[in-house]
Amino acid sequence: MMAPLDEVTGPPPVRRSLLLIVPALAFAALAAVLFLRLRSGADPAALPSAMIGKPVPSFELPAVPGLIAAGAPVPGLSSRDLRGQITVVNVFASWCAPCQVEHPMLMRLAKEPGIRLVGIDYKEPSPEAGQRFLARHGVPFSAVGADASGRAAIDFGVYGVPETFIVGPDGVIRDKLVGILTPENFASVLTRIRAAGKVAAAQ
User: Fold this and answer.
1) Contacts of 1 (CB under 8 A, 6+ apart)
2) Do 103 and 97 form a contact (C-beta atoms < 8 A)?
3) Pairing of strands 163-167, 173-178
4) What's the pLDDT score for residue 30?
5) What are the beta bridge partners of residue 77?
6) DSSP character for 159?
7) What is the number of alpha carbons within 13 Å of residue 34 lying toward its C-beta?
8) DSSP at 63
Protein backbone atom coordinates (compact mmCIF):
# COMPACT_ATOMS: atom_id res chain seq x y z
CA MET A 1 0.00 0.00 0.00
CA MET A 2 1.33 3.45 -0.91
CA ALA A 3 1.64 5.97 1.91
CA PRO A 4 -0.65 9.02 1.80
CA LEU A 5 0.97 12.06 0.23
CA ASP A 6 1.02 13.94 3.51
CA GLU A 7 3.14 11.17 5.05
CA VAL A 8 5.80 11.21 2.33
CA THR A 9 8.67 13.36 3.48
CA GLY A 10 12.01 14.31 1.95
CA PRO A 11 15.05 16.20 3.17
CA PRO A 12 14.27 19.53 4.84
CA PRO A 13 14.41 22.52 2.46
CA VAL A 14 17.70 23.78 3.93
CA ARG A 15 19.34 20.38 3.53
CA ARG A 16 18.08 20.10 -0.05
CA SER A 17 19.65 23.47 -0.82
CA LEU A 18 22.99 22.40 0.65
CA LEU A 19 22.93 19.20 -1.37
CA LEU A 20 22.68 21.31 -4.52
CA ILE A 21 25.10 24.09 -3.57
CA VAL A 22 28.04 22.13 -2.09
CA PRO A 23 28.86 20.11 -5.26
CA ALA A 24 28.59 23.26 -7.36
CA LEU A 25 30.99 25.13 -5.08
CA ALA A 26 33.45 22.22 -5.11
CA PHE A 27 33.37 22.08 -8.91
CA ALA A 28 33.90 25.84 -9.15
CA ALA A 29 36.90 25.67 -6.80
CA LEU A 30 38.47 22.83 -8.82
CA ALA A 31 37.88 24.67 -12.09
CA ALA A 32 39.54 27.79 -10.65
CA VAL A 33 42.63 25.82 -9.59
CA LEU A 34 42.95 24.20 -13.03
CA PHE A 35 42.47 27.55 -14.77
CA LEU A 36 45.20 29.21 -12.70
CA ARG A 37 47.50 26.25 -13.35
CA LEU A 38 47.03 26.53 -17.09
CA ARG A 39 47.54 30.29 -17.05
CA SER A 40 50.68 30.09 -14.93
CA GLY A 41 52.90 28.65 -17.67
CA ALA A 42 54.52 26.43 -15.03
CA ASP A 43 56.69 23.46 -15.81
CA PRO A 44 55.03 20.10 -16.31
CA ALA A 45 54.03 18.59 -12.99
CA ALA A 46 56.91 16.84 -11.33
CA LEU A 47 56.18 13.47 -9.77
CA PRO A 48 58.99 11.90 -7.79
CA SER A 49 60.82 9.11 -9.58
CA ALA A 50 62.96 6.49 -7.91
CA MET A 51 64.88 6.18 -11.19
CA ILE A 52 66.42 9.65 -11.09
CA GLY A 53 70.15 9.29 -10.50
CA LYS A 54 70.14 5.66 -11.65
CA PRO A 55 71.20 4.10 -14.96
CA VAL A 56 68.45 3.58 -17.50
CA PRO A 57 66.87 0.13 -17.18
CA SER A 58 68.09 -2.46 -19.61
CA PHE A 59 65.76 -2.83 -22.59
CA GLU A 60 65.76 -3.54 -26.30
CA LEU A 61 62.75 -2.51 -28.37
CA PRO A 62 62.12 -3.20 -32.06
CA ALA A 63 61.48 -0.45 -34.58
CA VAL A 64 57.95 0.75 -35.27
CA PRO A 65 56.94 -1.22 -38.39
CA GLY A 66 57.02 0.86 -41.57
CA LEU A 67 58.17 4.08 -39.92
CA ILE A 68 60.19 6.22 -42.36
CA ALA A 69 61.89 9.58 -41.83
CA ALA A 70 64.05 11.47 -44.34
CA GLY A 71 63.64 8.54 -46.73
CA ALA A 72 65.11 5.95 -44.36
CA PRO A 73 63.66 3.51 -41.83
CA VAL A 74 63.68 4.82 -38.25
CA PRO A 75 65.58 2.35 -36.04
CA GLY A 76 64.35 0.78 -32.82
CA LEU A 77 65.73 1.70 -29.43
CA SER A 78 67.74 0.01 -26.71
CA SER A 79 69.35 1.10 -23.45
CA ARG A 80 72.73 0.89 -25.17
CA ASP A 81 71.72 3.80 -27.40
CA LEU A 82 71.24 6.16 -24.45
CA ARG A 83 74.89 7.04 -23.97
CA GLY A 84 77.35 9.53 -25.44
CA GLN A 85 75.22 12.69 -25.40
CA ILE A 86 72.17 14.15 -23.71
CA THR A 87 69.17 12.09 -24.76
CA VAL A 88 65.55 13.03 -24.22
CA VAL A 89 63.32 9.96 -24.07
CA ASN A 90 59.65 10.73 -24.76
CA VAL A 91 57.06 8.07 -23.95
CA PHE A 92 54.00 8.55 -26.16
CA ALA A 93 51.08 6.72 -27.77
CA SER A 94 48.82 7.35 -30.73
CA TRP A 95 45.71 7.00 -28.53
CA CYS A 96 46.97 9.67 -26.09
CA ALA A 97 45.21 13.01 -26.72
CA PRO A 98 47.79 15.10 -24.77
CA CYS A 99 50.51 13.50 -26.91
CA GLN A 100 48.89 15.03 -29.99
CA VAL A 101 48.84 18.45 -28.31
CA GLU A 102 52.49 18.12 -27.29
CA HIS A 103 53.80 16.86 -30.62
CA PRO A 104 54.56 20.23 -32.28
CA MET A 105 56.81 21.06 -29.33
CA LEU A 106 58.69 17.79 -29.80
CA MET A 107 59.24 18.73 -33.43
CA ARG A 108 60.68 22.02 -32.18
CA LEU A 109 62.83 20.29 -29.53
CA ALA A 110 64.30 17.97 -32.16
CA LYS A 111 65.86 21.00 -33.88
CA GLU A 112 67.81 22.06 -30.78
CA PRO A 113 71.57 21.48 -31.18
CA GLY A 114 73.30 18.91 -29.04
CA ILE A 115 70.10 17.10 -27.98
CA ARG A 116 69.08 13.69 -29.20
CA LEU A 117 65.35 12.99 -29.00
CA VAL A 118 64.10 9.40 -29.05
CA GLY A 119 60.70 7.86 -28.45
CA ILE A 120 59.09 4.88 -26.77
CA ASP A 121 55.78 4.03 -28.45
CA TYR A 122 53.68 2.71 -25.56
CA LYS A 123 51.12 -0.12 -25.83
CA GLU A 124 49.59 0.61 -29.20
CA PRO A 125 46.32 -1.13 -30.14
CA SER A 126 47.97 -2.35 -33.35
CA PRO A 127 51.51 -2.43 -34.75
CA GLU A 128 50.55 0.14 -37.39
CA ALA A 129 48.99 2.71 -35.04
CA GLY A 130 52.25 4.36 -34.00
CA GLN A 131 53.46 4.52 -37.60
CA ARG A 132 50.26 6.23 -38.73
CA PHE A 133 50.42 8.72 -35.85
CA LEU A 134 54.01 9.77 -36.62
CA ALA A 135 53.47 9.76 -40.38
CA ARG A 136 50.59 12.18 -39.88
CA HIS A 137 52.19 14.52 -37.31
CA GLY A 138 55.89 14.27 -38.19
CA VAL A 139 58.81 12.24 -36.86
CA PRO A 140 60.88 14.21 -34.32
CA PHE A 141 62.72 11.12 -33.08
CA SER A 142 66.04 9.73 -34.26
CA ALA A 143 64.94 6.31 -32.96
CA VAL A 144 61.62 4.88 -31.78
CA GLY A 145 61.12 1.66 -29.86
CA ALA A 146 57.78 -0.15 -30.05
CA ASP A 147 56.91 -1.06 -26.45
CA ALA A 148 53.97 -3.32 -27.20
CA SER A 149 53.82 -4.88 -23.72
CA GLY A 150 54.59 -1.65 -21.84
CA ARG A 151 57.39 -3.39 -19.96
CA ALA A 152 60.12 -0.88 -20.84
CA ALA A 153 57.94 2.08 -19.83
CA ILE A 154 57.08 0.40 -16.53
CA ASP A 155 60.78 -0.18 -15.83
CA PHE A 156 61.35 3.54 -16.42
CA GLY A 157 58.68 4.27 -13.80
CA VAL A 158 56.11 5.72 -16.18
CA TYR A 159 52.80 6.68 -14.54
CA GLY A 160 51.03 7.61 -17.77
CA VAL A 161 51.71 9.08 -21.19
CA PRO A 162 53.15 11.41 -22.14
CA GLU A 163 56.22 11.40 -19.91
CA THR A 164 59.73 12.52 -20.77
CA PHE A 165 63.05 11.49 -19.26
CA ILE A 166 66.35 13.33 -19.54
CA VAL A 167 69.30 10.94 -19.77
CA GLY A 168 72.85 12.21 -19.36
CA PRO A 169 75.71 11.20 -21.66
CA ASP A 170 76.67 8.64 -19.01
CA GLY A 171 73.38 6.78 -19.43
CA VAL A 172 72.01 7.94 -16.06
CA ILE A 173 68.49 9.34 -15.74
CA ARG A 174 68.96 12.94 -14.62
CA ASP A 175 65.44 14.35 -14.65
CA LYS A 176 61.84 13.48 -15.40
CA LEU A 177 59.09 15.63 -16.86
CA VAL A 178 55.43 14.75 -16.41
CA GLY A 179 52.80 16.31 -18.62
CA ILE A 180 53.12 18.02 -21.96
CA LEU A 181 55.67 20.44 -23.35
CA THR A 182 54.04 23.76 -24.19
CA PRO A 183 55.18 27.06 -25.69
CA GLU A 184 54.98 28.51 -22.17
CA ASN A 185 57.26 25.99 -20.47
CA PHE A 186 59.52 25.13 -23.41
CA ALA A 187 62.36 27.48 -22.37
CA SER A 188 62.45 26.23 -18.79
CA VAL A 189 62.35 22.60 -19.91
CA LEU A 190 65.22 23.27 -22.30
CA THR A 191 67.17 24.78 -19.41
CA ARG A 192 66.58 21.62 -17.38
CA ILE A 193 67.84 19.48 -20.26
CA ARG A 194 71.01 21.56 -20.59
CA ALA A 195 71.53 21.53 -16.83
CA ALA A 196 71.26 17.74 -16.74
CA GLY A 197 74.04 17.49 -19.31
CA LYS A 198 76.30 19.78 -17.26
CA VAL A 199 75.73 17.77 -14.10
CA ALA A 200 76.66 14.57 -15.90
CA ALA A 201 79.78 16.14 -17.41
CA ALA A 202 80.94 17.38 -14.01
CA GLN A 203 80.79 13.96 -12.39
Assistant:
1) none
2) no
3) antiparallel
4) 45
5) 61
6) -
7) 6
8) B
